[in-house]
Specification:
This protein is mainly alpha-helical and 404 residues long. The chain has one domain: Up-down Bundle (Growth Hormone, Chain: A), CATH 1.20.1250. Helix content is 74%, strand content 4%. It has 15 helices and three strands. The chain has helices at residues 3-6, 11-19, 25-29, 77-121, 124-143, 147-175, 179-210, 214-234, 249-253, 256-287, 291-296, 299-319, 321-338, 349-377, 383-403, and strands at 47-49, 53-58, 68-73. The chain has a three-stranded antiparallel β-sheet, with no helix packed on it. A hairpin with a 3-residue loop joins strand 1 (47-49) and strand 2. Helix 5 (124-143) runs antiparallel to helix 6 (147-175), helix 6 packs antiparallel against helix 7 and helix 10 runs antiparallel to helix 14 (349-377). The longest helix is centred in the first third of the chain and has 45 residues, at 77-121. The two termini are 25 Å apart.
Length: 404
């Protein structure tokens, strides 16, 4: 379970509660409006007023030949409340999108430094540093009570994710030099990411609904401590210098095959990045969705991503990783076109499931391909190439979050 996914369904409503302490979304989502028919105007009256309209009637001095009627429509309090709620949610989409994008943007800036750092000190120390930073950011999320504090915590996650992602993928590529075994290992690793994505949103949504905002992050902090202890016992962080000279970052960035693989990762993840901040708010606005429903709606994508990464780790090697990525991108495009057509939560199940499965196809195919490209075209040192891969991943989320 990852903190970045755990807070997906929590933050939009929490920010709304901060800005509107006397009006929660749960109450507003159950508002029903009723209209009262206007009484029939009496031509002999000079002024008639009811709940929905003010009618002013002016007559001539002799007869009713010249009658001017002015209607000034007014919304009843419930309709006005819904209109204001819709406006506030649209405005909040921008704030939430910027907060989500801050992690990807900071991670984007950190990756070019973390990649070369792994060449000098190895993978274990940056990975442990990533755990420490993620643990601190999770604690801040648990007790933060303002937009600025939560924004800083989200940005800190970018540094922690950069250390963990680049080090983790580089370590796997180094430990599994055979291309087929590497694909299987990275498929399992991406499956671990999928498991966090799978559990995070519904866990966060249900805990926030029935326990409170701090509860899911405190549970997550305890789990993170366990992860840190395992790293200390199993990896025993220490400085390990690379024997081979690493390829320059410029040589990797100018390699057309690496750029195409990185581009596939970017475009594959851009779609889900657009949905993360906007889908819960859209469901609140159009469907009156409760907190737990906002989290559960990501379940189909998470489950299918878990299946896709584990299936196409080995299958991508057999059928061709470029072909698997191409098919995945096509499916992503189709699913993204279907999501805006949904009118209920049930209509989101199939496109979300297809989206998650297709992203799993692309990620589990292109991540091992990056290591393979370094093996056959450069020197088998993997920190920088997986920094590029993580930059591609973050670029998709930075662009996608801001597009909302």
């Amino acid at each position: 379970m990852t903190p970045s996914e755990n807070f997906v369904p929590i933050i939009p409503e929490f920010l709304y509660d901060i800005n509107h302490p006397n009006a929660t979304l749960d109450k507003l989502s159950r508002v029903t409006t009723t209209t009262t028919p206007s009484p029939t105007p009496n031509p002999c009256a000079q002024y008639i007023k009811n709940q929905n309209a003010d009618i002013s009637v002016t007559t001539s001095s002799n007869d009713f030949d010249n009658v001017s009627t002015v209607f000034t429509t007014t919304l009843d309090p419930e309709q006005e409340e819904q209109k204001m709620r819709h406006h506030d949610l649209v405005q909040e989409t921008v704030e939430v999108g910027m907060m989500f994008a801050s992690k990807a943007f900071v991670q984007l800036l950190a990756n070019p430094f973390v990649g070369p750092l792994t060449h000098k000190i190895g993978y274990s120390i940056p990975m442990f540093a990533g755990f420490v930073i993620m643990f601190l950011s999770t604690i801040i999320f648990a007790f933060g009570r303002s937009y600025s504090v939560l924004f800083i915590a989200r940005a800190l996650q970018g540094i922690g994710s950069s250390c963990s992602s680049v080090s983790g993928m580089g370590m796997l590529a180094e430990r599994y030099p055979d291309d087929k075994e590497r694909g299987n290992a990275m498929g399992i690793a991406l499956g671990g990411l999928a498991l966090g994505v799978l559990i995070g949103p519904p866990f966060g949504g249900v805990m926030y609904e029935f326990v409170g905002k701090s509860a899911p992050f405190l549970v997550l902090s305890a789990l993170a401590l366990g992860d840190g202890l395992l790293q200390l016992l199993m990896l025993q962080p220490a400085i390990v210098r690379q024997e081979s000279d690493p390829p320059s970052l410029k040589a990797l960035v100018t390699d057309p095959y690496i750029i195409i693989a990185a581009g596939a990762i970017t475009f594959a993840n851009m779609g889900i990045a657009m949905l993360e901040p906007s889908l819960p708010i859209w469901m609140m606005d159009t469907m009156g969705a409760e907190r737990w429903k906002q989290g559960v709606t990501f379940l189909p994508a998470s489950i299918s991503y878990l299946i896709g990464t584990n299936l196409f780790g080995p299958l991508g090697h057999r059928m061709g990783r470029w072909l698997a990525a191409l098919l995945g991108l096509v499916i992503i495009g189709i699913c993204l076109m279907l999501i805006p057509l949904a009118t209920s939560m049930n209509h989101l199940i199939v496109p979300n499931a297809g989206l998650g499965f297709a992203i799993g196809m692309v990620d589990s195919s292109m991540m091992p391909e990056l290591g393979y490209l370094v093996d056959i075209r450069h020197t088998a040192v993997y920190g920088s190439v997986y920094a590029i891969g993580d930059v591609a991943f973050c670029l998709g989320f930075a662009i996608g979050n801001n597009l909302t």
